[in-house]
Design brief:
Elements: H1 9-13, H2 25-46, H3 49-65, H4 70-84
Length: about 100
């Protein structure tokens, strides 16, 4: 079963890297969405902060497919935090 790998993996693994190929935009987006689910699951299971870095890398790649840079994405995040708040107060809605 194949999966999306980081750019330098073939270089780092050399002969052990196996077969790999570039993906077109549609296949890349699908693979990124699968990778996001994988990375989120790994974070939820292990709680390692490095998994959050992996999640960000996938999110930035997805944004780039939509023509959005990392700095634009961070601007959108900050704008939403200004308008609706962040999670600083750790509020939990109990519902009605």
């Amino acid at each position: 079963m194949g999966k999306l790998i980081r750019d330098r993996i073939p270089e780092l693994l050399g002969d052990q890297a196996g077969t790999h190929r570039p993906l077109d935009d549609d296949a890349f987006e699908t693979a990124l969405r699968q990778k996001l689910q994988e990375e989120v699951q790994e974070y939820l299971e292990g709680g390692e902060v490095m998994e959050l870095a992996d999640i960000l890398e996938v999110v930035y790649a997805l944004a780039k497919l939509d023509g959005v840079t990392e700095s634009q994405l961070d601007y959108f995040r900050a704008e939403k935090a200004r308008d609706r708040g962040a999670f600083e107060q750790r509020l939990y809605w109990e519902g009605d």
